[in-house]
């Protein structure tokens, strides 16, 4: 006989990727949209990060996907109706936030009007009344998305502090965003709210390429994940974000202001143009620009039937030094070092670059460790500041590292040092 109670299959994935959401109760509302199947992967990923996930469904949602499948995916009871129950009250009081995904036009209009005639809209209205974070992920045809009543409803809800993950309009539809975008919105809004509201933040991300000829170039292993994670987190916490990026290996946010470059020189010009033409509260240089370029660049492809090719490399401009000459605001740099797990050495190198490059803070990591850094979902860093600040952020998802870096930005600006 079994002596232990049977575990739900969802328990097997709990906190397997991270523990930073342990103790956080996330409530999801599912409405009638064909994109509803996309939410399952999102909820299970949040469970992998430690969250407890609870779900309410509208009748239209249950006609598209069986609630039993949702219960299997989350390991918790799914509410499809409240027959005299106070489930919406309990969920609202205990839930950390409420995410309506997908959010149909009907649900958006009812929430804006305060109509709670189904479990989703009733829970949403109750959450608003309690001041809990509400996140909407609209999906609908373009005609509905641009319909004046829906536009007005969304404007009203955003004025109340509701977070709307504005859709990417593709092929005449307001498409459901990538899972990474929804997860970033849920985590940022639930854990930090809009604590960066109104700040203007510039982020650089990714590698650069230095061309030899029309098809060949040198670059590095940077994927751009760290910079993109910072840009996403800052945006959902209320900042106005500009992302200057090289060739990325990850999807860039469609909702930030993006400027694509290829070479280190192009990235330098783009950053200088931004800090000269706009007022930025903080510049976060998470990119990994190439340190060298070819002295001679060929317009056409070099023929491969030659016996030998001698090339000369020269150093590229140091972007941070050039930026510091014209930008006097909060400047945060990144440094990728190979110190083979020597934390003291990493701190020493970080302190040297902090001073020599004119940073206010520098974030350093050890790229000799294959489990962190370039192309990995994880990072482990030390943050060093001019004011004697030192902090070791242990191995964490890059989203968690990004959150802590932006906490430092928030605190630095809030306490008047650069207000």
What does it look like?
The longest helix has 17 residues, at 398-414. This protein has 419 residues and is of the alpha/beta class. The protein has helices at residues 38-48, 59-62, 67-74, 87-94, 105-113, 119-129, 142-145, 148-159, 179-192, 225-236, 264-277, 319-326, 343-357, 398-414, and strands at residues 25-30, 52-57, 78-79, 97-103, 134-138, 140-141, 163-164, 168-170, 173-175, 200-205, 210-211, 217-218, 240-245, 257-260, 282-285, 292-294, 313-315, 330-337, 361-366, 378-385, 390-397. The protein has 14 helices and 21 strands. The chain folds into 2 domains: 15-192, Rossmann fold (3-Layer(aba) Sandwich), CATH 3.40.50; 200-300 and 307-414, Rossmann fold. The protein has an 8-stranded mixed beta sheet with strand order 14-13-10-15-18-19-20-21, with helices on both faces. It has a 6-stranded parallel beta sheet with strand order 3-2-1-4-5-7, sandwiched between helices. Helix 4 (87-94) packs across helix 6 (119-129), helix 5 crosses helix 6 and helix 10 crosses helix 14. Its cofactor is FMN; Mg(2+). Pathway: Cofactor biosynthesis; coenzyme A biosynthesis. It catalyses: N-[(R)-4-phosphopantothenoyl]-L-cysteine + H(+) = (R)-4'-phosphopantetheine + CO2; (R)-4'-phosphopantothenate + L-cysteine + CTP = N-[(R)-4-phosphopantothenoyl]-L-cysteine + CMP + diphosphate + H(+).
């Amino acid at each position: 006989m079994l002596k232990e109670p049977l575990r739900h299959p969802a328990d097997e994935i709990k906190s397997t990727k991270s523990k930073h959401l342990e103790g956080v109760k996330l409530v999801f509302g599912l409405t009638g949209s064909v994109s509803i199947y996309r939410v399952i992967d999102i909820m299970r990923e949040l469970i992998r990060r430690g969250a407890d996930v609870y779900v309410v469904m509208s009748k239209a949602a249950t006609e598209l996907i069986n609630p039993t499948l949702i219960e299997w995916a989350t390991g918790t009871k799914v509410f499809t109706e409240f027959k005299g129950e106070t489930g919406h009250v309990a969920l609202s009081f205990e839930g950390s936030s409420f995410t309506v995904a997908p959010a149909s036009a009907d649900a958006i209009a009812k929430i804006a009007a305060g109509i709670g005639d189904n479990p989703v809209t009733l829970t949403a209205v109750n959450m608003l009344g309690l001041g809990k974070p509400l996140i909407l992920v609209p999906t609908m045809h373009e005609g509905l998305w641009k319909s004046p009543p829906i536009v007005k409803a969304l404007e009203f809800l955003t004025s109340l502090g509701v977070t709307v993950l504005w859709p990417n309009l593709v092929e005449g539809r307001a498409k459901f965003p990538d899972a990474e975008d929804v997860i970033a919105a849920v985590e940022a809004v639930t854990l930090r709210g809009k604590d960066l509201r109104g700040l203007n933040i510039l982020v650089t991300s990714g590698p650069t390429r230095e061309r030899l000829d029309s098809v060949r170039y040198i670059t590095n292993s940077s994927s751009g994940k760290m910079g993109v994670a910072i840009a996403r987190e800052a945006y959902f916490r209320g900042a106005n974000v500009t992302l200057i990026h090289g060739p990325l290996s990850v999807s860039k946010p469609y909702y930030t202001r993006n400027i694509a470059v290829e070479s280190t020189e192009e990235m330098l010009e783009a950053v200088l143009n931004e800090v000269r033409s706009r007022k930025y509260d903080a510049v976060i240089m998470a990119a990994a620009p190439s340190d060298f370029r070819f002295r001679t660049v060929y317009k056409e492809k070099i023929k491969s039937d030659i016996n030998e090719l001698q090339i000369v490399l020269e150093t590229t401009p140091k972007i941070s030094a050039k930026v510091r000459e014209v930008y006097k605001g909060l400047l945060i740099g990144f440094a990728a070092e190979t110190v083979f797990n020597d934390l003291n050495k990493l701190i020493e190198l970080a302190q040297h670059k902090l001073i020599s490059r004119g940073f206010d803070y520098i974030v350093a990591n050890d790229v000799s460790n294959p489990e962190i850094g370039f192309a990995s979902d994880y990072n482990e860093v030390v943050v060093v500041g001019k004011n004697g600040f030192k902090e070791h952020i242990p191995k964490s998802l890059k989203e968690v590292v990004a959150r802590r870096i932006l906490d430092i930005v928030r605190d630095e600006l809030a306490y008047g040092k650069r207000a």
